[in-house]
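Problem statement: downstream parser choked on a complex file, so we are re-checking the raw output for the PXG run. The parser issue turned out to be on our end (a line-ending mismatch), but while we're here, posting the original submission so the record is complete.
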Amino acid sequence: MPLDQNQWPNDLRAFWLPFTANRQFKKSPRLLVSANRMHYQSSDGRHVLDGTAGLWCCNAGHNSPRIVEAIQKQVESLDYAPAFQMSHPRTFELSNRIIDLAPQGIDHVFFTNSGSESVESALKIAIAYHRARGEGQRTRLIGRERGYHGVNFGGISVGGMVNNRRVYGSLLNGVDHIRDTHIPEKNAFSRGQPKHGAERADDLERLIALHGADTIAALIIEPVAGSTGVLVPPIGYLERIHEICSKHGILLIFDEVICGFGRLGDSFAANYFGLTPDMITCAKGLTNGIIPMGAVLTSSEIHDAFMTGPEHLIELFHGYTYSGNPVACAAGLAALETYRVDGLFERAASLAPYWEEAIHSMKGMNHVIDIRNIGLMGAIELAPRDGLPSQRAFDAFLQAFEKGLLIRVTADVIALSPPLIAEKEDIDTIFSILTEVLQGLD
Ligand code: PXG
């Protein structure tokens, strides 16, 4: 049903939309008014297939009844409990459920409210950890070019997406970046992990030689880079990164805000790739995107390094008012239960080959210069228009939405990440709409 006239906002001026072309948007707003499973309904009454799980977060689809009910029940019994020097039972329950899903050796959970906060928390914990064990000179943080780690100062400092950094001054000092793993001249149209590029991990050795390992606290990377346009790690790359970090006592942080909770067909990318980092940052799918919540998962070694000194003193001077909010915890518990009962991680794994076939069937279409995929995520990269980067993909986004499909675009890359409840027919619909869009795109 189209939106009732009385519900339509009469003035769009006050709201400043995040990461949005505000003036274009306000000329022709795109409003979603309800959702169910794989579909949104737009304010003009159209059904829109969700090709992106919201913003990579609604892994169990929309308005999942178990999660909705859990939130309703929780808010009726305990709305809020102070997060400092107090807690409530659900924080412990949820931490244990998360740890059950994490690789062996990851045993502790620190709650935040977003991916950006998870990243800030992990970076601070890394520096404080080294200090706690007498290596206070290890303060340097390393990220990777084209990395996305949220929008706070730590995250944009270790991040490597130019537009997110360049107007914000000098950022954190003592940060450096290894090269990204994008090698289109060798790897274009790879299915799953590309063959070439494991040696890009050795770029970390270059920075170690430059700065000295004993000044470096941590390396943070996305196991699969999401926001920059789905860059899948070359075969052997992550293993080499893990080995170099271990050799030099550098903490390895996997930023799994996108990969976590089933996107690759396993609980975490760490499990998928069979590697245990020192910390994992997550958010999004933790509550199926319904209530903001994030977390940093750490090894016992990191956690235990702080558990010294007099017992009445605070060990880590860090936390948020809403760390472990009861309603968020209820949403998280219900989301994890839904993933388990409905077998959604396994479902993603079993759909991945179909997904791969479907996305690679777009090869040869108008403007397509690369296609990348892993698990239930993928990207179709378009050649940019001369002198007008991003415009062609943005047009594709607008046209897809008109035709009833929600996609994400970043520069000239179309990124896709449907909810893990997708049926094969949904996947077919995604690519038949995209085919129509690309055929008509100049
Ligand atoms: N780390 C990673 C790896 C992310 O992908 C964040 C941190 C920050 O999370 P918050 O919750 O603070 O937004 C993210 C977020 C997109 C898109 O379409 C990606 C994100 C957010 C919004 C859009 O690529 N990733």
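For whoever reads this later: The pocket of PXG is lined by residues 55-56, 114-116, 119, 148-150, 222, 226-227, 255, 257-258, 283, 408, 410, 415 (CB under 6 Å).
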